[in-house]
Fold this protein.
Amino acid sequence: MRVLRSSGALWLGLLTVVLLVLPLVVTSRFAIDIFIRVLLFAFIGVAWNLIGGYAKQLSLGHAAYFGLGAYTSTILQIDVGISPWIGMLAGGVVAMLASLPIGALCFRLRGPYFAISTIATAQVFMLLFLKFRDFAWGAEGTTIPNLGNAPLMMQFEAKAAYYYIALGLLAIGLAITYRIERSWMGYYLVAIGEDEDAAEAIGVNAMRIKRDIYMISAFLTALAGTFYVQYIYFIDPQTAFNFNISVEAALVSIVGGVGTLWGPVIGTVLLEATSALLQSWLGSSFGGIQLTVYSLILMAVILWRPTGLLSVLAEVYARIVRRGSAQTKKAVLDG
Amino acid sequence: MLEVLAQVVVNGLLIGGIYALVSIGVTLIFGVVKIVNFAQGEFVMIGMYISFFLATYFGIDPLVSLAVSMPVLFIVGMLLQHFLIRRVLGLGDMPQIFLTFALSLLLMNLALMAFTANYRTVHTWYSDEAFHLGEIYVPIAKLVAFVLAMALSGILWVFLQTTDMGKAMRAAAQKPEVAMLMGINPNRVFAVATGVSLALAGAAGSLLMPFYPASPMAGQVFVLMAFVAVVLGTLGNVKGALIASLMMGVAESLGIQFVGADSGLIVVFLMLLLTLAFRPSGLAGGGAR
């Protein structure tokens, strides 16, 4: 990471420009759809990374917040007529509030049992939304009324608009992570992640820090939920609380590198690129191949590179820079 | 009313016996190797497919193919411990959780590709047989599965209490460093513990086959049940896992009867969350770590 930061501003500017003009250059709907998926899952990964990566509380239940965000904005839109832009924030707040009791219960457990209890919470939400049909359409779900081009209702005819929203979300997530990483809270989080008991012993209020970061993570994840159902114009409990969302949030971060700013982004690009390639080679007929490949990548990363692929990239980059500067030096000396 | 309640309790206990085999496996690995095996349900699934194929192509009864699924999975367990789990021991939560989690995803999706998502059933002569005990209806296949599950749990108990290997396992579970000083080879003990644990999962799969359809995702319910039971019964405690599993079976059965057919799991998950709220260290006490 340090390597990237030294010439950081330049790279970041370049990346921003590329990302901003990308949908103007690449206009294939299929490609833009993949870009949107990458941005969205990178954003969810970034949200997960706050609690899962920095504080090492390995949640496997982020689908709970994704679904709460999705349902809150959809219910507000269909039943009350409130714009999803406002519904998105409302969903974030609902998710934040829900994270308080969930965190109070689950943080009593550590390590694997924290992960298991978070799976249980997400499942409870899915089962509840399946059960209460008069409250939220039950198992059939509902389509979101298509209003044509209605920017105020977060509906657009151009796919590129969704791309820019997803890009904006990712930028917000990264900016928040960047700020937290450099604040006292970031150091507390890393301390908790390293050794919670030791952190408490030196006066870190671990319970409070975990609660606060979990709230932020839940809020951001809920924003992704609203965006996703607005993008696909459909919601049902299986979509909104899908276990795969919890899995992918963790997966992209681990593959890219937990507890790093760019880890989830790198991880998502790699996994989604693999998935897109597999799809174009094999078609979507070969069910199971995508997750088979994902799980193999995950195992390979855990066994050979537990710090994630970002550290591999950083090493390669460092080597190139070192060789480059050595050559310049040599040229200067020779000249 | 009383008959209904008695019936519900019997149904719950019968399926709880299967949950117990899975939970005891999870708690055994956790106690000895200090790893939570997220893929335990997939080994139940593999046990189911072994019995399914032996029954379909060779006409072997699932209860007989127990003699195949258990040793096969025992060996798989030893290999799993030797080639995968051993490499992440002592590396912290993240690699430990996600290694077996990745394995679970991998096995599930390989099964999906190899066997498709279709439900596979084995019909034995006793699959539809049942008898009445007073007012209570007792399906024979489930009763046999329950009795064999309890017998296997009993055999494991005797194994842990009386054999050298069993004692070594308990020693390694309680004080790994001291156990090593006493000349216990941890790698061997860990491999046998994982092997035994997977053999129990395989047994659960075979025992399920006469009355439960096999599918790539079939293991999921059992592993979730097992996790709840293992938390309830205090981590690493074999007896606790057994009792908790039977309770979970009854709780699920009560949920299905009184809340609705799809509510069994809600009841189970709520039980987990309530346990965490009021007895985070499990019903038998002890550390929550």
User: Anything to note?
Assistant: Residues 2-218 of chain B form one domain.
